[in-house]
Amino acid sequence: MFGNRKRVVLVLALLLALISACARPTPEVIEKEVVVEKEVPVTVEVEKEVVVEKEVPVTVEVEKEVVVEKEVVVTVTPAPAPEIPRGGTVRIAMWETREAYNPHMRGGYAYQSYVGATLQRLISFDANGNPVPVLATEIPSLENGGVSEDGKTITFHLRPGVKWADGEPFSSADVKFTIEAILNPDNIVTSRAGYDMIESVETPDDLTAIFHYKEFYAGWMIIPWYVLPEHILGTEPNWNTAEWNIMVVGTGPFYVCENVPGDHYTLCKNEYYWEPGKPYLDKIAVLWVPDREALKARFKAGDYAAAYLITDLDIPEFNAKDTALHMEQGGSIEALWINMSPSDGPDMGNPNIENPITGDLKVRQALELAIDKQEIVHSIFLDAIPAAACPVPAGWGYDPTMEVTEFNPEKARQLLDEAGWEVGPDGIREKDGLRMHVTMMGSTAKYRMLYMQLIQQWWKDVGVEMEILTPEPSLRWAPYNEGGLLRVGAGDVQAIGDTYPLDPSALLEQNFRCSAIPSDECPTCWNGSRWCNEEFEKAMDEAAGEKSFEKRLEALRRAGRVLGEDRAVIPLFARTRTTPVNTKQLAGWMPPEGKPNPWEYFTTYAGNWYIPKQ
After folding, report:
1. What is the mean pLDDT of residues 233-244?
2. At 143, is the pLDDT very low, low, confident or very high (cuts 50, 70, 90)?
3. Structurally, how many domains does the chain consist of?
């Protein structure tokens, strides 16, 4: 009745192979046997004969069934990644030229077209503003010992095996030379700010550079901006006329191998580049096309793979097949600076006397509510750029909690009523015999004239009369002691474009600190708004002395938030650095984060560029 039963169970687990667009991978079959013992209850018939009344024990057998399970696993071998094409030359065009390409000597847009492809920094920053080691192996910090407790000593450990494009090894001697060359009074430089805080650079070995600051300097991450070759420039009495300035050799994926001033220059592949397998291209030819209309036309005709830096007004023209836009929406912003002091008369520019109109916070709030920022970006730029919410539009001072102010004329009228400004017979408000007439000073740039005219009409609708002034730039931006209109306090509102770097502290200091109000003692100071705010000063002081990166970010964001909440600045829209790209001629131009990096340049990622297969 009872017996051992053996059952063999075959279990097949088949995984469906992924269908590849280019090839079907070959599946690999793996078999293995697993022996499992299971207790299986068995049904048994029991016969029972009752003779006397007593309990009869009944035994029930449980049969153990041995199951042999055979797993068949099908794995899919991934298809090989498509091979990136190598070699070839791409042509890009640029509208601005330069006679010298040393980034520490010259500013402007022209140097951006080559510097990212040829020179490198100890520390760079990704598209989200996070520090990334490049020629350094790690970001110095208090935790890893790279930053001393007092913040005055910064230790950089350098990447081994790096060579300059001429084959010479890169070392700490180059880092030390770069700092000393910038501080050399015989060398022409754009700025020594921050560098003049360095007491010395120590090089205990080829891969260690120790910066000793005179006191803690919060902006140490961006020093030096680019590292220069000691073995080339160190032999010159100064770098002002060095051949290297036009034939740049760096540690980047390319170097300048040909330069025809006023026509073009050529970047050649760095055979010693430290990133394995890169660069993919042999050459990049950069051509100078000073006529922007001609540049746009030739790009559209397919003459260039990219047209470096078009204007925001040009963006809608490039919405075409086979064209992509590399749009860096970083620290560039268009905004209105509000004058807190009288804009005319004997008290003009006196920071101790309040502007009778714009000195009132309710009035400043009303003026912003009466501006339709979304309409500006829609009607002028066809929605190609975004409206701005924060006076610092990106980077470490950007506060993501701030939102674009709504367009609410009715609320603006209410605030003006509360401030005591009554509507006159012609629709313009008055208070204590003073007509609500304000002046807005700007330039004749097409886009700026268009938005100033829109604002003029919107403000008139709420009872504010606005006069547009477009003085000569030389008069508007002149020093205080030469009657520069911004610096002496002329104009109630200034329409201004500005660009904040990733670390905005220097520009915030320059533009809005109480100590930056122009005067005889500081004729080139920039705080033409005469805005002086205790909370802002406190936040800036904290940022300047804070050694913790995270706490410093919070202090800078607080400073930007105060600037916006007090309406010293009314942000209008973000400006861009935009480069149209012909996607048939160039690929690999997007940074690793999948979005343009406003803290680097278009050519910084030239090592990843390649010509796509047709």
Report:
1. 94
2. very high
3. 4
Burial (Cβ within 10 Å: 0-12, 13-18, ≥19) of residue 572: buried
Partners of 40 in the beta sheet?
63
- Give which of 511, 587, 503, 550 is closest to 125, Cα–Cα: 503
pLDDT tens digits, residue range 513-536? 999 999 999 898 999 999 999 999
Task: Write the secondary structure of 223-254 as one string of H (helix), E (strand) and C (coil).
Answer: CCCCCCCHHHHCCCCCCCCCHHHCCCCCCCCE
List Cβ neighbours of 346 (8 Å cut-off, separation of 6 or more). Answer: none
Could you tell me which residues are beta bridge partners of residue 577? Answer: 328
Domain containing 70 equals: 10-48+56-76
Q: Which whole-number Å values give the CA distances from 20 to 28, 84, 613, in the listed order? A: 16, 18, 19
* Cβ neighbours, 10 Å, residue 120: 21
Would residue 1 count as lying in a domain? no
| Contact (CB, 8 A) for 153 and 145 | no
Quickly count: other Cβ atoms within 10 Å of residue 390's Cβ. Answer: 23
Same domain, 482 and 346: yes
- Clarify whether residues 519 and 538 are in a common domain: yes
The pLDDT confidence band at residue 380, using thresholds 50, 70 and 90, is very high
Considering Cα of 455, then 460, then 465, then 467, what sign does the dihedral take?
positive
Q: Which of 192, 211, 241 is the last residue of a domain?
A: 241
The tokens describing 402, both together, are 């701030």
Q: Which residues contact 316 (CB under 8 A, 6 or more apart)?
A: 381, 382, 384
Stretch 319-337: mean pLDDT, rounded? Answer: 90
Domain co-membership, 473 together with 383: yes
169 SS3 class: strand
**Are residues 232 and 221 both part of a single domain?**
yes
Beta bridge partners of 12: 72
